[in-house]
Request: fold
Amino acid sequence: MRFLWYNLGRPERGLDMAIELYATAGSVEKDLRNCVVIVVDVLRATSVMTTAVQNGVRSIIPVSEVEEAVDMARQLGNQRVLLCGEREAKPIPEFHLSNSPLEYTADMVSGRVMVMTTTNGTRAILRARDAKHLLIGSLLNASAVAQAARSCGENIAIICAGTYGKFSLDDILCAGAIISRILEIDGKQYLDDLARTALTLYDSYKDDLRAPLAGCAHVQRLKALGMEKDIDFCLQEDIMDVVPCYLDGVIRNAYA
Ligand code: 3SL
Ligand code: MG
Reply:
């Protein structure tokens, strides 16, 4: 789907910029080279990345496949590499860390290089790698990423990782949180229909994000695996001020 303002490079007359929201990475067909993109995977990949960057990781290299991660770690030799990620939400055998943000303490990650592969989040980031600016968003850094995206001065595309190719409510709520912060900075934004929906949803539930998520498929999956503490951690808003940013294959703090 294309809107006229893409061709013009600017949104409707009288509005400063546009925010477009994608429910899944697979639904993105547009050329992202003129956009600032925010990729969101609240449960749990982008929450892990935000936490790791906040806790001083040197860099994160996202890759799609487990074998690629192992090869990459081998190529990097002895640079204190951590192999990180999940499959079916569970730890990957022989990897150092799973996809629980609680494992990414300063003691564990400070100064280290992470090679990370997850089912949806790292793949969504790689899908968006042609973006002019590619930022990593979560509830943990919602205000910081909103501020950074707005300061780039480009139209914004928020891409939700989704879960196994499907819409994931946790990501849409986070997109709504980020959009509400962008509007606090500058209210003159064109919002596409899904961005409006996310904002309405977030505004309705911002006092209790757990309520709409109770029956959500991925939340239930993580709960069944005993990962309630991860969910609680990932639903905290604005407790971190870093903005992980992907450039040339590597994620680092945009403000480093
Ligand atoms: O799909 C992903 O990228 C993961 O974040 C999903 S999980 O929460 O680790 O299962
Ligand atoms: Mg997810």
